Amino acid sequence: MAFQYLTNIPLEQAKKEYVQLLTANGMGAGSERMNVTQACGRTTARAVYAHICAPHYHASAMDGIAVQASDTFGATQTTPVALTPEQYVTLDTGDPIPENCDAVIMVEDIVKNEDGSVRLYDAAAPWQHIRQIGEDICAGEMILPAYTTVSPSAIGALLAGGVMEIDVLRQPIVGIIPTGDEIIPPTSDPAPGDIIEFNSSIFSAMLRQWGALPVTYPIVPDRFDQIKSAVSAALSECDMVILNAGSSAGREDYSAQVIRESGGVLYHGIAMKPGKPAILGYQGAKAILGVPGYPVSGIIVIEQLLKPLIEAFSRHPLPQESSVRAFLSRPVVSGLKYQEFVRVRMGYVDGRLIASPLSRGSGVVSSFMKADGILTIPQGLEGYEAGSEVTVQLLRPQEELKHTLVAIGSHDPLLDEVSDLLHRKDTSCFMASTHTGSMGGIMAVRRKETHIAGIHLLDENDGTYNESYVRKYFPQGGVRLVECVGRTQGIMAAKGNPKNITGIDSLTAPGIRYVNRQKGSGTRILMDYLCKKNHLDTSAVYGYDREEFTHTSVAAQIASGSADAGMGIYSAAKMYDLSFIPVCTEQYDLLIPDSAWDTPLVQELIRILKSDAFAGKLKELGGYTLQSPGEIRCAF
Amino acid sequence: MAFQYLTNIPLEQAKKEYVQLLTANGMGAGSERMNVTQACGRTTARAVYAHICAPHYHASAMDGIAVQASDTFGATQTTPVALTPEQYVTLDTGDPIPENCDAVIMVEDIVKNEDGSVRLYDAAAPWQHIRQIGEDICAGEMILPAYTTVSPSAIGALLAGGVMEIDVLRQPIVGIIPTGDEIIPPTSDPAPGDIIEFNSSIFSAMLRQWGALPVTYPIVPDRFDQIKSAVSAALSECDMVILNAGSSAGREDYSAQVIRESGGVLYHGIAMKPGKPAILGYQGAKAILGVPGYPVSGIIVIEQLLKPLIEAFSRHPLPQESSVRAFLSRPVVSGLKYQEFVRVRMGYVDGRLIASPLSRGSGVVSSFMKADGILTIPQGLEGYEAGSEVTVQLLRPQEELKHTLVAIGSHDPLLDEVSDLLHRKDTSCFMASTHTGSMGGIMAVRRKETHIAGIHLLDENDGTYNESYVRKYFPQGGVRLVECVGRTQGIMAAKGNPKNITGIDSLTAPGIRYVNRQKGSGTRILMDYLCKKNHLDTSAVYGYDREEFTHTSVAAQIASGSADAGMGIYSAAKMYDLSFIPVCTEQYDLLIPDSAWDTPLVQELIRILKSDAFAGKLKELGGYTLQSPGEIRCAF
Q1: What value of ipTM does the predicted structure carry?
Q2: Any domain includes B573
Q3: Phi, psi of A482 (to 5 degrees)
Q4: Shared-domain flag, residues A262 and A140
Q5: How many domains does chain A have?
Q6: How far from chain centre, in Å, is Cα B586?
Q7: Which of B415, B155, B131 is nearest to A199 (CA)?
Q8: Does a structural domain hold residue B425?
Q9: 20 to 30 A Cα–Cα from B325, which one of A36, A395, A575, B349?
Q10: Residues A454-491 pLDDT 10s
Q11: Angle of helix A522-533 relative to helix A438-446, nearest 10 degrees?
């Protein structure tokens, strides 16, 4: 096969040719001999035949006596037959049948005489009440064909058949080489510019789940010679090698060159997103896979391009994620030139399975952790409209989705605590929160995409919270507003308030850098209102357009020193040990559609809101006031 | 709760009360601290929060220069802005943003002057092309709630959040105590009366699949004191104890008494089959489960009664087997007084999923290995009629069932070899054979329950094979008869033929014990015909009613010395090194309905029949002649 350098090979073609090339080069597992008791989950290298029969002897199936059936012929209720002690042997269930005996008579059917003889009122049929040799397994019979996964009951059958050891396929050894000058091993105290190397830990866990044996090599700096000798060392010890690039652009050129010089490159550049810069390399029958540095790209490349190699090597198809049909909550736009993998959160709302696209940043590993499924947008398609019914590959059991409380709306750390309390109470229940701001929550309830929405929306006209918005957006009713908490909003500033921020008015002072919340969030609406009320020109606030999506991320920017002030709740300021200038107390409530109200998940949520455990958690977080959480404030 | 001794408690009630009792007594896992990289698949003991933000510093998202955005304000295509070398810093993707900078300009958008200054034709927006702190994860945010399984991507998120160790729930330690005087450790050379102890290996493999840690103790003889002290020692080291009884009747009384004296017995005797003699015992929060000795009973009891305890202990529901609807090929009769678990083989034939009940003997561990699913017959139901649509819990992925070639009919060891060749060729294809004899195969084809049927049916009138039967049973046609092999039938006798058997006529001689095949099998039909032709009175043949279901099991009986002669094929005699007196050569063919003919599985089968590999295997087995295997002999 000619080596080709192409930049946009369709994924399916690349996958197929990569497996074919390596298989043609001789890729495949050798076998190893293994004790049967340790072989569960392994794959047989060749057919296994029974050495002995099971049972391996004729055994009594009853407690009673063993006899020669012909001695009993003619016995009836009226003409009993007597057997002398020499003509029978007493035995228990499981005992071997003595030579010259070929039937067992149950103890209940015997009358013992005083001289030790027995009387029988029924003739015995030859082989009655005997578990014959080979009833379960016959010697010489095939117990397992080649390339078969060994199950617990197969272990029993093999041992019963006298097989103590079997040949199983060797598990592929996969070397992982992390590269990059800034890359450091995991630490809880990295210096700025250090990039924590966690890809190898993710890949190792994936590989173990697929029955492969990962070996992670030390981090190699971005130097051609060092990378090349690391690859060479790994190739001598492993069946496949993953070369994980640094995340810097330009650096992956080293990977391609190293791989080319180590053997060959089938393709560099696959029509997939994320994961386009993947390099399909090899040395003879050994794969050398160049994997991009961003974790999400890496996970997708390993899943799409390494997993098929493991399956081919191990001659064992790995379980497929099952797929479901779901309705998209938002449009997804994709490019025509590549196949795109979009992570989605899912939940059953009002009987329909809703899929909401998550962040598509390839550096955002948490979005993979939160994903319930993967939506594949084929090459040549521009994407899907909101409301489209699409097929999604499940990353969690569908049963879990049916027991997941969906929360879309305003962010508050208390939602995570509710999620924890819910799952602790009943581990079959889950909660999935998406932070879209209060208005996003209201829209999600209208579109029947969520069970609950956290909202805190100030009515500028009368200073009330939430009710007037619900009335406006739900003129037909059908929803309930459930009291949750009062919480203190204010201006967060660096610890000790070095820039002496006293309130809204300080934000236009020279040198003050503000960080804002996204439009549509309750906190942004509050901020816009406060600026208007105080006649503050928001264009004079430096950073007013810099938008974050949660209270904690605003606090994190201030704690990092990249902003001087931001509006947020007290609990976020406390979490980051920031100064806090209180501005107002607002009402944070939950909007719940009537259709969700009577569901076990929502009813459990209400119980949690009313619980002491919830009150205790809020006290720890700080800045909350509780009146009667869980009570319906109004039904519309 | 009062201790009760009841003999027939409904399974669901027993299960529920057992979990409740042990939970009330404090059953549950403690936690252990663990390196995050090793925690995949484990369950968090408490919620885990991020220690640091990810990214933990503001990082450039591009190769280019870092600037203060305000320095660039006003730059346009017509009025470029120049920055002195002091006003910018060159950086690569991933590099930290220097202090006093708050925007990155891509290298493509910069024009360099000779004096080291740069010209810009566009103003930079604050924070453009910067990956901000916490974009992925914010310090203090909950990464995982309590009681959550750690996934590969969660490992990445935890390490990115600076979490190096987490508390996970301890895995339950389950002690297994095998008991019984005749029980011996696995061996390939047992003496008569020895019972090979393989239950503990099956249970251990099941427990490991459920995330528990099995500990198998040495075999304990059937003595009350020794069993009691073994249980006591296991209780001091384990969270749960399985006391596996010897298979002899009467022996389990020791178990109940030992368990009662070690703590208490909730129930002894559950309304389930197999598994009725199970004992639900405990010592405080520790379960002591008395498990019957037969392997199939044991598997069902462990699955039904121990698995729920593991789930409660580990606060983690284990994956449920999914269930499917299938049509029963045969009636299943059950008792009203218990819930029964019946093992079934399954296959898709002609678009319908067919379930065929397997042997219900509780000693037959191979039937568990072969089972594709479990049919549960509820207490109070007498069973199901043939053709009923029933719900079956899957033991294999449904996808595998769709790629399984179903063979029902006459037994020949060559079928196992075909199965091996088929699966080796394409590991996503499987074959499931059931031995019902030739007539059973014809009936299965008529009822649309099989893809192929092996038949060898002699027409007494003209000495031909198979064709006249097919014509008779398929007057409407719709089937093809595919040539398979010629094979030599004969009388098998012990090695060296010590009883000097010369042919059919020898079978009525005194002292000759015959072993027969079941009615409806081609070999039985042949034997009946030969006896008639030779004017042999079959009632004068000792053991003519002793029926075995395969050639190998007939051979096994003769090899064991429990029979002197039996009719069978040469390959079975060769397997057991028996004497063989050839009687005739017969035609063994495959009957295939037209509806199955064009399926990929049947077409692959035909290719295999025509292959050299198949011919080679038959040569090894011996006694076969090949003309044109795989050719259609006639289509009806």
Answers
A1: 0.93
A2: yes
A3: -105, 130
A4: no
A5: 5
A6: 37
A7: B155
A8: no
A9: A395
A10: 999 999 898 899 999 999 999 999 999 999 999 999 99
A11: 130
